[in-house]
Amino acid sequence: MLKRLALPLATASAVAIAAGTVGYFEGKENSAYIDPVGVVTICYGHTSTARIGQTHSDAECERLLQQDLGEAFEAVERHVDAELPPTREAALASFVYNVGEGAFARSTLLRRLNAGQVQEACDELLRWVYAGGRVLRGLVTRRQAERELCLMEPEHILAGESHE
């Protein structure tokens, strides 16, 4: 019975971790705005249907976050060949949420992860700090957090330890 619960619990914890990570780093703006690289954005970094002049309720922003995160998790599942602990899955979903599936699918990060080079793959996150050709401090901080999650092993989670 416990084995049957392990996967749904791991998935649920990965979603909760990713939602917290994305929510923290994206922030929430209920009215559409132009992001630092000129993309119309609303809520928690949602872009695909955002239009200037739009306003969404908190509930709609939460719905869009869950929808967009679901797509990010599906992208991770499509492209990653290895089993992932919940923290690594959450880190990768947060990354895909931010950079998009195409960038992830073409990345050295993914190639290294699928080659079993976990440390090197997680370290690749630190390279993704540019937007519009310049380093953004918020991306530096986000990638450091995603890297830490990526490197965290399940036994460290249970013990309440950080990787660094």
UniProtKB/TrEMBL annotation:
InterPro entries on file: Bacteriophage_GH24, Endolysin_T4_type, Glyco_hydro_24, Lysozyme-like_dom_sf, Lysozyme_dom_sf, SAR_endolysin-like
Signal peptide location: 1-18
Keyword Hydrolase: yes
Similarity comment: Belongs to the glycosyl hydrolase 24 family.
Full protein name: Lysozyme
Reaction catalysed by this enzyme: Hydrolysis of (1->4)-beta-linkages between N-acetylmuramic acid and N-acetyl-D-glucosamine residues in a peptidoglycan and between N-acetyl-D-glucosamine residues in chitodextrins
Keyword annotations: Antimicrobial, Bacteriolytic enzyme, Glycosidase, Hydrolase, Signal
Keyword Hydrolase applies: yes
This enzyme's EC code(s): 3.2.1.17
